[in-house]
Design goal:
- The protein has 135 residues and is of the alpha/beta class.
- It has four helices and eight strands; from the N terminus they run ββαβββααβαββ.
- Strands 3, 4, 5, 6, 7 and 8 form a six-stranded mixed sheet that branches.
- α1 runs parallel beside α3.
Length: 135
Amino acid sequence: MVICAGGGGIPTMYQKGADRKLIGVEAVIDKDLCTELLARDLDADLFVMLTDADAVYLDWGTPTQRAIRRATPASLADIGFAAGSMGPKVNAACAFAQATGKKAAIGALEDLSRIIAGEAGTTISVDGDGMVCAS
């Protein structure tokens, strides 16, 4: 079974002083943490976040960049991933792994079957040996 969630829509609230009149408001819903919570509540066996990157990278955009293939939440805790990019995905994957003891993965849509098999993307689990990067 595949369950999907995403961002979008117009956030609203009831206007104060009006009789149940909805008005638009500014709000941000973190889609990565939202899907993590949904996956956890549904007791998913694996939580996969698909993006345009093939994996999570250390030193992204530099000559020393390297893909993280496997990691534990503890091994990722002190790494500063960009808030507008991989940061929320890594946080959500770590939260899922820690809360459930199951695996989470991040990678590219075209690699989905290989991500599920553990052959592509970045897999995060609590039972691992720290961090393994691609050579």
